[in-house]
Amino acid sequence: MKMIASIGGFSWNSYTEDSNSIPKSSFMMQGLLEQLNVTRDSTDYLWYTTFVDIGKDEEFLKNGQYLLLTVASAGHSLHVFINGELSGTAYGSLQSPKLTYNGNAKFRVGSNRISILSVAVGLPNGGTHFETWNVGILGPVTLSGLNTGKLDLTFHNWTYQIGLKGEALNLHSITGSSCFEWGEFSQKKPLTWYKAFFNSPDGDEPLALDMSSMGKGQAWINGESIGRYWPGYKAFGSCNGCDYRGFHNEKKCLTSCGESSQKLYHVPRSWLNPTKNLIVVFEEWGGDPTGISLVKRITVDAELQN
């Protein structure tokens, strides 16, 4: 009988992305741009940033209320930051990648910064008119609850930043990681990079990373991509029998409801050195990296198990 056994966890250092900076590589345009036309698929990530001035006579300030920020996106996921603080997250689904974020946001008197990190997780490379499919924030983007009613931010000046600072620093690579001074471990923060070292386990059993404690992000071993992970995306539906006949869709798998769509990510042994292997994880949501473990598949005698 095949079983999964944990080999051990990791001792982490971390670096958190700065959501409140505008690097020199950014540029400004009026209106909202489609994501892939800007990134050229060089990264999953594109920052959309604009500023809103709030007058001291606004009624919502006196009443202690919040403004309602609405963001319409073609998909696939986004994180909203107001003045550098995470305000909310939204994501689409397999059936409907488009999404609309509605969230109460705390604004202050004066200039307020709205930064939205739009995240793409790939596009199908087939099907009817697939070349016309798009991602990113296409609008409208509105702010409701002001004295004047609803403010449309769609055609404001937006500053665009392609990718993350950690990507520009090549933190996932052996060279980039070693040239950067990482901080002490910081747990459960969004947009955080984690780094650790580990030795290759003995034996020749298949290895994997158990990422079930994490939310959404990417992982690398010795600079090689393990892939995107998304265990925070849970299976849903009625737990009946599965039927995989015909074309596949997410409703054909009706078991393990409430569990992660995937939690184990294969680690090829050919990528590993005997000692000092580098693992780098970028976490978008704020998962718990202390729960990440290296596991291996073992064979257990059924009689011994009983």
TrEMBL record:
Residues 45-102, 191-277 form the Beta-galactosidase galactose-binding domain. Keywords: Glycosidase, Hydrolase. The keyword Nucleotide-binding does not apply. It comes from Dendrobium catenatum. GO terms for biological process: carbohydrate metabolic process. The keyword Coiled coil does not apply. InterPro entries: BetaGal_gal-bd (IPR048913), Galactose-bd-like_sf (IPR008979), Glycoside_Hdrlase_35 (IPR001944). Pfam families: BetaGal_gal-bd. Coiled coil: none annotated. One of its GO terms (molecular function) is hydrolase activity, hydrolyzing O-glycosyl compounds. This is Beta-galactosidase. Signal peptide: none annotated.
